[in-house]
Amino acid sequence: MDIVTIEMRNSPVNKSFMREPRLCRYMTTKRSIRAITFSALMLIQVLAPITYATPSLIPNSVVDTDVDLALLNGIGLTPSADTAHGWFDSADGVGEIGLLYRDASVVAVEDWSAWTGQGSTLNGWYVLTHSTPIPTEWFYELEDAGIDCFTFMPPNGFQCELKGHSTVDLEKLDVEGLVQIDAVDKLREDLVRGVLGEQKQFFNPYSVEGKAIVNIVLSGTSLPEGLENRNDLVLDSHSGRFATLVAETSGIQWLASNGAVEWIETNPHFTLNNDVAAQIIHADDLQDSSFMSARDPGWGSLDGSGIVVTVGDTGLDNGVNNSNTHPDFKDHIKGILSFPIPPSQCTWTGPTNPGSCDDGANDDHGHGTHVAGSVLGDGTLWPDVQGMAPEAQLLVHAIEHGGTLAGIPNNLGDMFDLAVANGSRIHTNSWGSSVAGYYTTSSMQSDVNALKNDELVIMFAAANEGVDADNDGKIDEDSMGSPATAKNVISIGASENLRSNATGSWPVSASDNISGMATFSSRGPTDDGRLKPDFSAPGTNILSTRSRDPGAGGSGNYTFMSGTSMATPVSAGATALLLQHLIENQNVPNPSSALVKGIFAATSVDMIGQYNDVTNGAGQTAPNNHEGWGRINLSSAISASFVDRESLSTGDERGWSVSVPASAPTMQVMLSYNDETSSPVVSANLVNDVDLAVKDPSGSWTNLSDSINNLKGLTFASPAQGVWEIHIIGTSVPSGPQFFSVAVNSGYAMVNLTQDADLDGTVDEDDDCAFTFGTSSVDRQGCPDTDGDGYSDPSFNWSIANGADVFINEPTQWADQDGDGYGDNLGGTNPDSCITVSGTSSG
Questions:
Q1: Which one, 103, 416, 628, 786, has the greatest CB density within 10 A?
Q2: Cα 257 vs. chain centroid, distance in angstroms?
Q3: Angle made by CA atoms 574, 577, 582, in degrees to the nearest 5
């Protein structure tokens, strides 16, 4: 088969500390289930106290941060301690922005010039805030005014680039306040420890005394001016908002002090997260035609046919698709692609430089071949050892090199884009970096791509960092790896398999109780309090295909391995079966990854644990930070009812009803959505807060308070007979509209309570194209918008003169006043420097 290829994108402060440990401090109280009326909002405004000082009362400097200032001083960085960077008591300003290490106080827009001395015309990067809740339209209003905004800064701001805008201009745009991010806010402390030659929290060979390979998050998409003139910084790659550089200590200091840079950390050091399983998650039931037809006469059996799964791992068997390849993969290989080491790592002196930059796709480790077999090995040599989806197609991304995972690209999007280009619907990854719950640049990259490619289910192993450090008989929380800490991926923990005669080195048997978690499996939560892992699957003593490459060792065609590395491909195979079911049996041609996550969450098994203790591990009621929402259960997943790709904005509400019969089993309702991308620089990573509420037949409401997670649910034991209502509320959607999925664990018909004929999330009375699905939100509401920039496509009754999109396939451009083919948005692709004078110059 032809494989699509895509070009890889390389293009001294003595202060007191008053901080307390923080856990997602913003939006700690929920609003009412009902949308706040206009009159109530006006009353709130009248009663709200004025919280900013008069211009003559410039506040005193207060340095209050969690970052180790003494450590940062070692590379020449100290806090600016000025008002512009938010170093003052927030009671004197208009709120605060939650950064990773501190809460930065915000200056009222009308006080900016007097308090900071910067003048009234501003250029550069600023956090702009709005009163809460932020209307979804505000982002686009700023964009129309020539202000490009990127990272959401919780609870009520965006990081934006100003280009000669005045404070008067900002007031007219409903900007409440401003603040700038300081240099000391932007660095991961372990990077600084590395370049200072100090002991690091996590092993990483990419930082040594005086030098490091660094990943940076840009404030926008442009590199800092002057980078090309520096001898202490060498650019390795740049794509979108991400760049990788080889940096000396002085270069790191310069990057942190530059407004175009939002975050800096060491390039991640990724490591691997090393027949019965199919029965435990009920994959075997779905392969049984009689079982499926008994559920619904129109349903066929499932084996993964038509689903392409990409495995990003150490390679596959002999590395080429020929007659010598492991027979269990014959006729199932769509392609094998070897990823070379990125340039910075290929020239880096140290343990990750084994030789040439690409050693091929042969699996001399054995991990990748085992993982691929768990997904879709067809059991040719041993019919009893099949993967979960034996007729799925396999695309291999070989990322191992000389015993390391140095082939992983600087921007993970390179892998995900290739997968999508080759028709893949699943990308499974049994590797990660040890970060104890941090949200990293890799997490951010994964979220970017899950949001961009919402039909691709991206899966990561939780990691194998589970320990009982205090010897209390319970595995400690807070050991999740990255990118498994991302919001929009599916993170998998390892439960026990059932092989009672297996041996291991753990103090308890590793595979004799399917209701328990593996002791090595990493636990959540993430550092901002989000629940992780998402689900669990068997990961101990998994029997699967063995690489026959001489370097892999061993003998025979199959071998046992354990780890979240093994649980993740089991889950990926299960996902292939669920996608096939949705496409073939449920007639859903393009199910979203959010829907897959929601269905699994609604139908997973709440394990009882292996210690007869309801406070220990999986013994806790799901969801918990050991098993997530539970162990995947395919026989229940296929019967879930659902809606997919509905949307809403701030203040919107959507609703459905379900009729529950008498003596119904426990009902679980899940809300799932791919949230807008966050950044490592902030303390709380949820951007859009969408809430769930359920009304029972008696009229009683159950409102879910959760402003942290983008996967959230409500469970009702012994639900009463009658009509139940499920409502989704756009509590705060600063970056929208937000698309979402709802899943219910039983096959109840979901009746739309909202008058929305085309089911595009815009109610008919507000929909300018009421009978045509569309997502436009700027010139028209609810009309077709091919590139998703908010401007609708031209139609027979709506022309470019009316405000329709001139560039329907370019999301960064929409207007062209002079009609010369160059867009008016200076921050977009092919911008027009003379927007009112037609011309064709390109120099």
A1: 628
A2: 28
A3: 125
